[in-house]
Predict the 3D structure of the following.
Amino acid sequence: MIFGRLRETLRNTRAKLADGLGRLFGVARELDDAFLAELEAVLYSGDLGPTGHAVLETLRGEYRERKLKTTADVRARLRELLKSKLGEPAAELKRPASGPAVILVVGVNGSGKTTSVAKLARLLKGEGRSVIVAACDTFRAAAVEQLSTWAQRIGVPVVKKQAGADPAAVAFDAASQAAADAVDFLIVDTAGRLHTRDDLMAELGKVRRVLDKKIPGAPHETLLVMDATTGQNGLQQARQFTESAGVTGIVLTKLDGTAKGGVVVAISRELGVPVRYVGVGEKAGDLLPFDPKEFVDSLFA
Ligand SMILES: Nc1nc2c(ncn2[C@@H]2O[C@H](COP(=O)(O)OP(=O)(O)OP(=O)(O)O)[C@@H](O)[C@H]2O)c(=O)[nH]1
Ligand SMILES: [Mg+2]
């Protein structure tokens, strides 16, 4: 991830989290319980959630054991702990030994799915991969148009049907075309849905089965698109989505517009699936592969 770019994106998060950390660590102070309480409040304001609390418990324990003697010790250890909570960067997107890799994109309404499909198509195309996209959000005519417009701009083919068509039928056509053209990636856009809507979750199941029938093993990745501005609230929703929809990775969008960037730490920790990409704006180029270590460094920069 381009460091400057991420740093800029995290402006709002930094305003709370990083500047809070800067204020705390910027002045010479004794390390005491009050300092640790203030640190916990700063992490809380940055939306680190329970992860922030867990980190603080570790720091308090080490302070009591006199392993941490100064606020500088705490700063270094905090950085280490956050990095370890975030884990390693996600591995490459899963791909079959031969044939197209299929990426299914899911999430609640308005989270940024269609935009992310387009951005991802552009990213992969930029790496020299051949890509097609499928407009399986047939719920609204505007959705098909939106993806078609993006696809044209980016220069990738789009498979679509009229609004109201069965999403699984679009998936079938798209998988057939992807296999026939032997493209590297097929990216499938879907309609927004809540995990609580059994009928819509069943529809998603049908899309998955159709993809798998045409391209065995598909979808190889199921990316849940999550709006970072929902912070901890979105996390609960994401947890249930992850369980019921076979999610293998997260795309965290709108990181540019939020002070809740700390939610990244909580997501990686609590959902058990990696944050793969972050959305940092509305343009086609505004999707960055997510690197946990750079994220932490940009908070402390
Ligand atoms: N600032 C910012 N805006 C974003 C980002 N990603 C998406 N958006 C905006 O969020 C809005 C919704 O994006 P869509 O891609 O249409 O969302 P969706 O999940 O496909 O929506 P539905 O299909 O209606 O469920 C649009 O105005 C996008 O431009 C991002 O990373 N940053
Ligand atoms: Mg959409």
